[in-house]
Amino acid sequence: MGPAGGAQGPDGAVRRARGRGRTTASMADVARLAGVSSQTVSRVSNGYAGVNEETRQQVLAAMKELGYRPNSAARALKRGEFRTIGVITFTLSTTGNVRTLEAIATSAAAEGYAVTLLPVAVPTTDEVRGAFSRLEELAVDAVIVIMEVHLLDAATVTLPPHVQVVVVDSDAGSHYTVVDTDQSGGTRTAVQHLLDLGHLTVYHLAGPEDSFAAQRRADAWRGALTDAGRPTPPVVRGDWSAESGYHAGLELAAQEDCTAVFAANDQMALGLLRALHERGRRVPEDVSVIGFDDIPEAGSFLPPLTTLHQDFAEVGRLCVQAVLRKMRRDGPQRGTTLVPTRLVLRDSTAPPPGGGRRES
Amino acid sequence: MGPAGGAQGPDGAVRRARGRGRTTASMADVARLAGVSSQTVSRVSNGYAGVNEETRQQVLAAMKELGYRPNSAARALKRGEFRTIGVITFTLSTTGNVRTLEAIATSAAAEGYAVTLLPVAVPTTDEVRGAFSRLEELAVDAVIVIMEVHLLDAATVTLPPHVQVVVVDSDAGSHYTVVDTDQSGGTRTAVQHLLDLGHLTVYHLAGPEDSFAAQRRADAWRGALTDAGRPTPPVVRGDWSAESGYHAGLELAAQEDCTAVFAANDQMALGLLRALHERGRRVPEDVSVIGFDDIPEAGSFLPPLTTLHQDFAEVGRLCVQAVLRKMRRDGPQRGTTLVPTRLVLRDSTAPPPGGGRRES
DNA sequence: GTGGCTGATGTTTGCGTAAACATCGTGGCG
DNA sequence: CGCCACGATGTTTACGCAAACATCAGCCAC
């Protein structure tokens, strides 16, 4: 029937792909077996209407028999998109980043997108710039950046023009689309909780200075105290680690008037608990401690930690939504989306030793 | 000169890629600007010898001017490989998986490979099979599975024939290439440490039954005790979480003769510490506790936890090495590689209350 | 000087897919 | 009866790159 030339392979059988010696069925193979053109296979493969049901079944049967899988490289080349989202992270050692990443991967999968991980070894501007530069030849359609974004200074880092970017943990909402936990609201909830218990003021065990999240938690803490007309004790700083929390805790334990501490994350709160314990200051009887994150272990600290729950899953979900919206050019291109926190009451907070105003 | 048709764009300028409206320079654009053929551009791009230095410089200049980036889809289609490693994980909620993943990503990047994350929502055989099936149309050359591998039962899961697989945390060394921490050796070190301190026997707070790692730690614990001629107390089980460790700890605290506990991971050890504390059993004076993993917080527990350090970075590195070796068809295709652990002595272990044999 | 060799470069081709366009039969309708 | 619309399917083409092959100049040896 058909003309002599054309797609007929050397032996009419499934072709042996070059390179790895693997065997792969292409659309042409399926088409041959089903007795249709490869275009019809393509239509079936992509679920287009306008294919006779009978033909469809034949094609599907042929696909199954040959174990046909669309070749994503060819598809990407043709369509000009990869169905892949890149995620740039500096570190996976913080709970938040990991949980966010996991949520991103899950949400992306639900949308039919894969996730490619782009680790940046050292968070220097150069490294980040390098990552963004490499990005352009990477097979991604969009990028989500989970990082302190001082490094994303628009002046020095050139973003690939066609790649959509969403950022977590930044205040660069005017330049990028940002999704983040409501650091400020959460912090104010924490401080207010302690003030309501009767504490005269609240100390702050802050995260590192170069972190936006830490900065905003510190700012909100200061704001909450100021609004309530309370004095603001000096800030003690850690680097997010439990170890640094311990050292900071030794300092705080020495402060006689310190009856309440807001730790910028749970890990530091853990170290703080140990320091207070060592120095004989009981929690919560002598000192109340509140954390931030609600890591899974927080309920097993000594004592179980009252903390602010971050909904990382939601953050991840919104990141994916936002980046897909940007790609599809609908919805707002910029601005910040905040995910609320939730106060989780456990056993590390109580009224101050003298007995403050009781609520119940 | 050339025939009328051909690569000449509508206006001889950088083409506007369809789909996203983005602007991309192709090899042809670079070639036109540099006044060479696209093949020469390809040679320069791939660093082949046999290109005149002067020509090379011209091409490089043209590349730079146009901001040329090779299109990875086209490259993958042509070469038949993606330079991408897929990583299948069930959960990122355990430290080990995350740290391993991070190491894999870093090592892969160093080898010029990207990492695509393939989360499996629920660890059922069906889900895993689905993941492996989807895999074939995913843009990966090889796969690393970070998972309890009961689910990788060869009878039910068909692995894509051309995709190389390396598995973490499994005893399926005869079927797959496996890289793992030396669970057994680590466990024996832990048990021996406690016996050396003078404890008559060691209780075991085990991980979930369906985990290979947990199983092997339990087996090694039993073996070590048996070899030393000590009785083996009944196993208490948790699910890796601190919460489960707490509940198990309440049980253990009730055992009068329990002076030493080997917890299968640090999180459970944390919960155990809390339970012991609540029940008035001091650590390490009354009960010694040893963990497994050496998570960053372990040094900040109350008391700081003696534990076995796992070198996740090395595990990740070896995974990448192994999978690349498999792809390149050199080196052993199967077998198990073990990464040794290291005992980290902190404050949670001591001789038993009665005072055992002292070492120093 | 002629043939063959080497190094540098150009030309052709095809990877697997899917958009755009072409074809072909069928059935409705003036 | 003839024309057109329409649904179903086939054919052509191009996505960007790189292997394979072709070309071509310069040079050496005999």
Automatic annotation (TrEMBL), chains A, B:
Keyword check for Transcription regulation: yes
Keywords: DNA-binding, Transcription, Transcription regulation
Domain named HTH lacI-type: residues: 25-79
Alphabetical list of InterPro entries matching this protein: HTH_LacI, LacI/GalR-like_sensor, Lambda_DNA-bd_dom_sf, Peripla_BP_I
Region (Disordered) residue spans: 1-24
One term of GO molecular function: transcription cis-regulatory region binding
Pfam families documented for this protein: LacI, Peripla_BP_3
Official protein name in the record: LacI family transcriptional regulator
